[in-house]
UniProtKB/TrEMBL annotation:
A molecular function GO annotation: metalloexopeptidase activity
Peptidase M28 domain sequence ranges: 273-480
GO biological process: proteolysis
Name of the protein this chain belongs to: M28 family peptidase
InterPro entries cross-referenced by the UniProt entry: M28_fam (IPR045175), PA_dom_sf (IPR046450), Peptidase_M28 (IPR007484)
Amino acid sequence: MSPIDAVGQRMIAQRISNILVALWLGCMLTGTAQPLPNSPDNVGAIKEADIKRDLFALSGDHFRGRRAGTLDELRASMWIAEQLRAMGLQPAGDDGTYFQFFHLQRTRISETSRLTIGNRTLEYGEDAIALAPAIASVVAPLVYVGTGTPDDLAKVDVKGKAVAILFSGNPPGDMSYRRFLFSSMQQRSAALVKAGAVAVLFVSDAPAQAIFERWSGAYDAGRYDLPGGPNTRVFSQAPTIWLPAKALPWVQQPDAQFTNIVNVESFSYPSVNIVAKVPGTDPVLKNEYVLFSTHQDHDGLRRPFIEGDSIYNGADDNATGCAAAMAIGRAFVKKPGKRSALIVFHGAEERGLLGSRYFVDNPTVPKNSIIACLNGEMIGRNAPDSAALLGSQVPHRNSPDLVNIALAANRATANFKLDTLWDRPDHPEGWYFRSDHLPYARAGIPAICFTTLLHPDYHTANDEPDRIDIRKLTNVTRWMYRTGWAVANNPKRPAVDPNFKLER
């Protein structure tokens, strides 16, 4: 065994610190859990067989990955609405339907763009990826600076030049390599542009090449937003280009010229939220809603990944959440709560939480009647006795009342060991900011997210229904249901923390 260097010692110390904080927070959270109201629920209506059937149907190849803005997403949405109708849920979308349609805008680099290195012409999407679809016309000498260490850069005047770097490095702590790769490229590119570079090109090393093959299709598609949103705006700026490993000899050519003429085009696509309700039984409280949130879209068709499979079915992300929401709706139909249950399947979550952002700005019920959002995001993988509750600790906790009810419901169901590290503001994945509860929390609605966290099949063709732990998925569904049932039957609505303020 080799000795541990200073960096290794710091990493171990940080991990020990994280574990101690997690244990302390776990004790704090468990200690504040409140007993559930004495209202018999109908948790027995949530059955593994129903959940498995719906999961396999929605994440099968028939719906081709349910990519937002495609007919596949719309066909899957029609199927979900028909299941809700057959179960007895009432439509709560626009114009007496189950649907709330909205537009999403896609901005991408057009095929008329031109990219060359020396005498070689590159094709966007195959040979190169632009990290942002920015308008850029650059003709400049290309310099290769190795891995871009301070010593490498000290030998080169980058002003007025296109700078090529061989990507290298390892992510800190719990940060995934993918997020490290993109954040590192953005930060290093910004520093070089500030120093005078007119373009920055990153060539993949072996680990980055694996990410290039897996994720380049997502960046090649461009950016999405609601009409008028920040990602629809295109600026003239120095381009940051990501190249595959095969490009290394191209950028190492002496006296090579870099040419990048970029044209940008924009398209509008339809997407849809599916909205259904079960009216409450109390003549007054039925005008308030407990909202169960999920999203039906995933990544659709991409380049073949595993044994020629090009369909990213998104079983855990997020057919698990959809199957849970359908099971919860079925239980409320058989036994309604005092308050109404509102179930929203959000479209275009993978494109930037677009469906939930749209619904929060254009709710189909009065916004102040939504007393809580319970979001289910990726709830069927990893250890059978573990889960996480995002929004359970400051600064992400916007309602201690709602958190306490959820903790008590956990103790009354599977009693999961709750991972608290992923809800911390310093967690490198920023998981709290990546699902549909976020727009509700920003709008002042008590909001939490039930999740079983990331795994190696995340956003790959390997996220298949046969890899889901159906029993665990059922237990998380029952936990969500019992939390929502308690909120639906409590005399008071959960209060919002007046001091709630997110770190970003």
